[in-house]
Structure formats: structure tokens, C-alpha cells
Amino acid sequence: MIDRHAIINQRVKESEKDIAEIARILKLERRTIYNWLNDPALPKDKIALLGYAIGYDFSKDFDDLKGYHFNFDNKQYLVGEPLPVYGSTSKEDIAELKKEINTLTQKVRTLSKGATNHTQWQKAMDSKIAILQDTLNRVIKGLN
Predict the structure, then answer these.
(1) How far is CA 110 from CA 87, 103, 116, 119, 134, in A?
(2) Which candidate, 1, 53, 138, 142, has a CA 20 to 30 Å from the CA of 127?
(3) What's the whole-model pTM score?
């Protein structure tokens, strides 16, 4: 028998999104996310929401989620379909995400100039930039 609890926690860990970011995306408290991750019998709708927040299709791990629909933000989604994290796919949102990516990229470049011991900080910033780029790609994918 598969250990759903362990798989869910592993996928969340692999996503490199922290609990605060997952909670923000789902419009929940961090404590709620911690409670979900500690629940060995987490219901399908909550598994689907976690997948939405981390950009992972849990139907790859759990057959009972194939074809499963869940509700978020007054909309219904199918597990595994591309979803915009910011809840909208307007051109303004895409422009805002691009601007945010460019701003972070410029900050990394500016702050790293002349710095001598910044490897760990730069890796963290690069990770945040990668998350923003991934989000932008998911939003654009949702438009097509």
C-alpha cells in the first residue's frame, strides 16, 4: 500500500515552495497548511489544492485523482490542468509578472556586483526568480 501522506509531503518539499507561499496562494493560514501536511488521511480536495499551489499533478501518484475536479476561488478545476497561480490570465497580470521577474533579476545583478561572499544569497534569489518564471509560464500556458 502506498503511503499517501509521505508522497504528499515529499512532493511539497520537492516544490521548493515554503509553507507561507503555499498558504498565500491558497488564501489560507500557514497553520492550516501544516495541519494538512500532518493529516495522514488528507481528503482528495485538499490534496488537489496542494497540487494547485505547488504546480504538481497528484493524479500521477494517486489513480483516484485522475479526472477529479476541485473548486478553488469560485472556479472548478480538473486535477493536472495548467492553472494560473495568481487567479487571472489577463494581459495586465502577465505584464506585472514580467515586470516582477525583471525587477528581481536586476536586483540580483546589482547586489552581486562587488560582493565577495554572496553565493548562498544569490542561489536563494535565483530560486525566487525561477519560481516567478515558472509562474509566468503557467499563466501563459493557461491562456492557450
Answers:
(1) 31, 10, 13, 14, 23
(2) 142
(3) 0.55
Whether 17 and 66 map to the same domain: the answer is yes
Cα-flanking dihedrals φ and ψ of residue 64, to 5°? -70, -5
Nearest to 52 by CA among 76, 83, 74, 27: 83
pLDDT at 130: 73
* Strands (E) located in 67-109: 69-72, 75-78
Is residue 42 domain-resident?
yes
Distance CA 73, CA 28 (A): 12
Q: What angle do CA 96, 97, 100 make, to 5 degrees?
A: 90
CA 25, 30, 35, 38 torsion-angle sign: positive
Measure CA 47 to chain center: 13
Mean pLDDT of the chain: 77
Same domain, 74 and 98: no
Q: 3-state DSSP call for residue 74?
A: coil
